Amino acid sequence: MKTSLKFLALFLSAALPGAVAAELAGVALPASLGLGPVFGAFVMTLVVLTLCHDYAEPAERRTRPARTGAATPAAEKSAHPLAA
């Protein structure tokens, strides 16, 4: 599913400048190929790709590990002389 969504996003990212150029040139495009529907489909594809990526991980990977409360020694924090 992700591959077909990535292909759709790639196709729409190429179709979007084409629709803009055609409308600027004065070509009469059908309503389904205008700038608004193409841009909306592009945005919805990116939203679905983001949701598929975020929620495809197991639940335990999305949660933060519990803090132990132990402080990290100063020597392990940073070796940079200007670091605090």
- Mean pLDDT comes to 77
**What percent of residues are in strands?**
under 5%
Number of helices: 4
How much is the radius of gyration in Å? Answer: 23 Å
Characterize the overall form: elongated
Biggest sheet record: none
List the defining traits of the structure above:
84 residues, mainly alpha
Structure description:
The protein is elongated and about 65 Å long. Helix 1 packs antiparallel against helix 2. 1% of the residues are buried. It has helices at residues 2-25, 35-55, 59-62, 74-77. The model has no long low-confidence stretch (mean pLDDT 77). It is an all-alpha fold and 84 residues long. It has one domain. It starts with a helix and ends in a 7-residue tail after the last helix. It is built from four helices and no strands.
Topology:
Layout: H1 2-25, H2 35-55, H3 59-62, H4 74-77
Helix pairs in contact: 1-2
Summarize the structure.
This protein is mostly helical. Helices cover 63% and strands 0% of the residues. It is built from 4 helices and no strands.
